[in-house]
Amino acid sequence: MATGGGTSETAVGAGEENAIPTRRFFVALHVGAGFHAPANEKAYRRAMKRACLAAAAILREGSGTSLDAVAAAIQVLEDDPVTNAGRGSNLTESGHVECDASIMDGSSGSFGAVGAIRDVKNPIQVALHLAKEQMAGSSLLGLIPPMFLVGEGAYQWAKSKGMDLVESASGANNWLVTENARAQWVKYTSLLVNTKKLLEHNTGPASEHSVQLEAPGTESENISDVKKILTESFMEDNTDCVMDTVGVICVDSYGNVASGASSGGIALKVTIWSCFCMH
Fold first, then answer.
1. Is position 245 annotated as part of the catalytic site?
2. How far apart, in Å, do the first and last CA atoms of the chain sit?
3. Considering the entire predicted model, what is its pTM?
4. Within 10 Å of residue 268's Cβ, how many Cβ atoms?
């Protein structure tokens, strides 16, 4: 979805005699690749419209940069439970929300990103803060600000900056984990267990991350059965199977470009509860 300021529109304030040209800008966004159930099309379109309007308000009024506009649009998408970003994200194998987000300013090349971050309502705001510190340059004793933070390190950094966090596990479950995400997690976990049982029944015990296959050019009956189970499971209830990020690109009236993305990752991804940062 895209929107932009018109070239011929004007805005006239109360009592003003001269027309003020409307700021020209551009906003484009998407809500993720994968299978989107037709029944949810209106919900996705509403989310995209709200996100476009949030970015457009900043660019039209000149109250922020294209970087701010990107973050504002993505925050709307993170707060909407219909997307796989922030609230409503796919759950990890242990049943938690761990998000990734990144943002980049085209004019300066400044970049900020977080990976596998828990208990943060809006990961894109942490990425934005990182990018802006990059733009500000070196700080105390010439230390270079971090660019990419992961896991517990990302959470603690966000906490030190006074950012909006979910303070408890119960709070995280109430806000970030939606009923739909939990239902899909239960479904996929059960599917994984049943598939492993089927494989072990037909091929014997296999390691957790490997499947015994027949000779090249042939397909064993158990692999065919697994494919059938997966296909029927994903399509039988006509629900979403969203695997990708949400993304936004903004261009302000000066031609400055910024872009960003946010994602909850694929369902049942391996839990990464680490402390790692890249400078």
1. yes
2. 34
3. 0.80
4. 18
